[in-house]
Amino acid sequence: MKKNQNPVVNATEMSTRPTVTAPAPAAAVNGAHHSHHYYPPTSSSSSSSASFRGCCCCLFLLFSFLALLILAVILVIVLAVKPKKPQFDLQQVGVQYMGISPTTPSSAAVSLTIHMLFTAVNDNKVGIKYSESKFTVMYRGIPLGRGIVPGFYQPAHSVRQVETTIAVDRVSLLQTDAANLIRDASLNDRVELRVEGDIGAKIRIIGFTSPGVQVSVDCAIVISPRKQAVTSKQCGFDGLSV
Asked: What is the pTM of this model?
């Protein structure tokens, strides 16, 4: 009778066998794989944006305060000075030469030289800076010539005289205007001309220049060709007769 033999496993044989480990769940593996890409939120970007907005608001308030301060100072100075419009008057008009010569039966040529003397009066407590001014001589609305008064500076409480000469060199007039001019000169000895111009001025207050003001000059002068002189002068300034 055969004995029942149970195989005996040696300790060495057991140690040489590989150990089988159960696989980990898929969720755990995925979590472990992606865990190194996660960063906790920081507040550095939001704090820098807030500080930038705060700086912009501070600068805006500062510039607004400075602008209001400068405006208030200028307003106080203007109210203290009480600036007035400058006075610019055509004081004298002299005819140096006037000649009218018919060129054709229906046209005539005019040659004229006029010397004008203006008086500028500044009653303000501050100086006035005048820009270049231009004056036009016209006959019945037709421009004949132009004179220029250079710009200048006038101190406070002062009177200054400026002059200009308008030269008209054989300007042709046609048909009706030529006939009227010849009739006025030869029969009536009275030629009426108009002098118009705009004078631009700015007031200087402690280094600041005010917005420009404008004085309009409109003068009607009557010239006697025989006497070569001005027989009448009437001027208006800004619609006021002087």
From this structure: 0.60
